[in-house]
Amino acid sequence: MDDIKILEGKKVLIVDDEEDILETLVELLDMCAVDTAKDFNSAEKLMHKNKYDIAVFDIMGVNGYSLLNTAREKNIPAIMLTAHALNPDNLVKSIKGGTQAYLPKHKMDEIALYMAEILDNFQKGVQKSGNWFARLKSLFDEKFGEDWQKKDKQFWQDFDKRYVVTKEELRQAL
Questions:
Q1: Which of 20, 36, 71, 108 has the lowest CB atom count within 10 Å?
Q2: Are residues 99 and 75 in contact, defined by beta-carbon separation less than 8 angstroms?
């Protein structure tokens, strides 16, 4: 899904402790109505006060996993965005915690594409969204080493079945 028109006017919460990251994401998502927060408490208040279509959380510095928990409880799809926590353990923890995508910060210029795919799937009633992984797998292999998935072998064997949307599932959703 390369059509980002679906993002037009969507309400987005972005949480990161780095001002330059927040500014960049606001610029990249200028078609959306974006709220930003630089810390956990501010983000929690915003999530309890407002309704969001999607959220983007940094992992480090803002207690991203707790925010992911709140987002999941409120049925807000979320993307985990990270630089410092870019490792296999955090990737698996994020997926198990309910993230819809795990995006390295140096790939954030592509965030609108990931968000559009997630929201398109949610509108169709499909809450799986592991398709992003195929786009980033070579990057993860390069960064983590070719055997990185062996540590959580069973998780990765089940990944496609549990998290990746099949063409058949999309057909049934239409």
A1: 20
A2: no
